[in-house]
């Protein structure tokens, strides 16, 4: 994928991450305002204008919900692109936090990692990154502070990194 495509994916991730709660909050507030109007003006019957705004509020809330789903899709695309064409490096684990498992597959667990990445390419500077990635239950012994793990990342955008060990999945959260 071209550099422009990576920028679009990162932009889509940021938009969906920030936009989803804003749309949901605005839709919820508008919905409650419409319900409040209907309750206080109950004897007037169903006002078509209020129903229009009520439908709009529900639609805005649903857009926020759709952005949450879209965010997950974008993160999967980003992880796969990093795995396919990212720069390589070694990362020292600074901290590890267990964040639960996948409901349908209890042998897959989410971990939040703070990593100090040392790129393999000498022209790239070391950096720190926080990630939340899906691992197999067999990965627990390697996910200890101080351990060094193989990673890949975008050299031009160090917001994301991906552990590329055998028991790590190309899934970010």
Provide a compact summary of the structure.
By secondary structure, this protein is an alpha+beta fold.
Descriptors for this entry?
173 residues; six-stranded antiparallel sheet; 2 helices; 6 strands; 44% helix; elongated
Give a description of the structure.
With 173 residues, this protein is α+β, with helices and mostly antiparallel strands. It has helices at 3-40, 48-85; strands at residues 87-102, 105-119, 127-136, 148-154, 157-163, 168-172. Strand 1 (87-102) and strand 2 form a beta hairpin. The two termini are 21 Å apart. The protein has a six-stranded antiparallel beta sheet with strand order 5-4-1-2-3-6.
Estimated radius of gyration? 22 Å
Termini separation (Å)?
A: 21 Å
Helical stretch tally: 2
Quickly give the CATH architecture of the largest domain.
Beta Barrel
Low-pLDDT stretches are none
With strands numbered from the N-terminus, the spatial order across the biggest sheet is 5-4-1-2-3-6
**What's the shape?**
elongated
Secondary structure: number of strands: 6
Give the SSE map.
Blueprint: H1 3-40, H2 48-85, E1 87-102, E2 105-119, E3 127-136, E4 148-154, E5 157-163, E6 168-172
Helix pairs in contact: 1-2
């Amino acid at each position: 994928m071209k550099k422009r495509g990576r920028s679009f994916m990162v932009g889509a991730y940021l938009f969906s991450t920030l936009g989803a709660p804003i749309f949901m909050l605005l839709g919820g507030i508008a919905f409650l305002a419409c319900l409040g109007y209907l309750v206080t003006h109950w004897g007037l019957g169903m006002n078509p204008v209020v129903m229009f705004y009520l439908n709009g509020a529900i639609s805005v809330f649903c857009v926020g919900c759709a952005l949450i789903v879209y965010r997950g899709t974008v993160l999967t695309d980003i992880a796969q692109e990093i795995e396919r064409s990212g720069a390589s490096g070694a990362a020292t684990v600074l901290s590890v936090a267990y964040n639960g498992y996948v409901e349908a597959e209890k042998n897959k667990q989410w971990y939040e990692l703070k990593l100090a990445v040392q790129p393999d390419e000498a022209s790239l500077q070391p950096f720190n990154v926080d990630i939340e990635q899906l691992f197999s239950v067999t990965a627990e012994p390697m996910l200890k502070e101080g351990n060094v793990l193989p990673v890949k990342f975008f050299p031009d955008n160090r917001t994301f990194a991906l552990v590329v060990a055998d028991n790590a999945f190309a899934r970010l959260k």
